[in-house]
Write a structure and sequence with these properties.
The chain is 42% helix and 18% strand. By secondary structure, it is of the alpha/beta class. The chain has two domains: 97 residues, Aspartate Aminotransferase, domain 1; 222 residues, Type I PLP-dependent aspartate aminotransferase-like (Major domain) (Aspartate Aminotransferase, domain 2, 3-Layer(aba) Sandwich), CATH 3.40.640.10. The strands form three sheets. The protein has a seven-stranded mixed sheet with strand order 2-8-7-6-5-3-4, with helices on both faces. Strands 9-10-12 form a three-stranded antiparallel sheet. Strand 5, helix 7 and strand 6 form a beta-alpha-beta unit.
Amino acid sequence: MVHYASMIDFRSDTVTVPTPAMRAVMAEASVGDDVYGEDPGVNDLESFAAELLGKEAGMFVASGTQSNLCAILAHCQRGDEYLVGQEAHCYKYEAGGAAVLGSVQPQPVAMNAAGTMDLDTVAAAIKNQPSMGHFAHSRLLCLENTHNGRPLPIDYVDAAQSLARERGLALHLDGARLWNAAIADDRSPAEVAAGFDTVSVCLSKGLGAPIGSVLVGSAPLIEEARRWRKMVGGGMRQAGIIAAAGRHAIEQHLAPLANDHANATRLAEGLAAIDGLTIDGPHTSMVFVTFGDEHDPVAIAERLAAADIAMFPGPTARLVCHLDISAADVETTIEAFAAALS
C-alpha cells in the first residue's frame, strides 16, 4: 500500500493535513448541538463567512457536494432545471444528486477550457417561456470559479449575470476555489461572490481544513437550504470542533495561497524545460502536464512514486500545489521528472 503521507503529494489540494496551530484551535473549540442552532463555533463560522463574502447568512456543511446540492434544491422545485457547464463539478462530479434526490433536471452546456460557456448557447437553452408544458422550467444558472484552476474572466461573469437577470434566472456560484480566484485577480472574496444569489466555498481545498464547506446567500434561501441539509443527513451535532478549523483556515491560510500560485509558476517553468512534456499553466495553483507518445504515463507515475512524489497518472496529469508543498519540494519534483523521463 502506498503511504501518501510521506510523499510530495500533487494529487489534489484536499490532501493537506491540519497544522499544529489548527489542531490546537480544534482542541480548544467551544461546542454545542448545531441541529438546535446552539454550537457557538458553527454560528461564528457561518456569520464570519457570510460577512466575508458579502452575503446575509451562511450554512456550514460537510462538503462542497452537499453545499451545491442544498443550493440547487433551495432554488428549484421538482420538474425545474438548472443550466450548468458540461464539465462543471455540480453537473459531472456530484453523482447526479439534484436529479436523483430533488427531481431537478440539469441542462448541461458545452464549456471551454477556461470554464466559460457561450452565452448565446446558454440563452438558447433557457426554457421559461410558455411551452404547452413540454419543458422543464429553467430556474437557475450555475457557474464555477475557479475551473481547473482558471479564474472566470470578470467581464464574462458580468455578462452571464446580466443574461440570467434578464431571463429571470437565479444565480449560484460553485466557488470551491473562489479563494484562489480572489488571490489571482487581487480582489476580495466579496467582490468575486458579488451578484450571485448563493455561493459555495470550500474550506478543505487549498485552505487546509480537514472537512467542510460553507453556503452563503440571503437569509430565506439559506433557511430553505438548511431544511435540505437536514433531509440529506447533513445535520451535525458538536460540529464546532471542525468549524473552528474552518475559520482558522480562512484567517490563516487565505493569503498564503499566493505561495501556492508562485510554486505552481516555478513548477510549470521547470517542467517546461524537460523534453517530452507539454505544459499547460500555471493556472493559480495547478499545472497540467501532457506526456509525449514515447512516454507511458503509468510508468512515469511509478518512477515518481519511487522518488516519493505522488500524482494521478494519465495522458494529461494535473499537479496541484498546496499548503503542504514547499518551494524546495517543487525543485525536488522538477529534478525527479527529469530523471523519470531520461
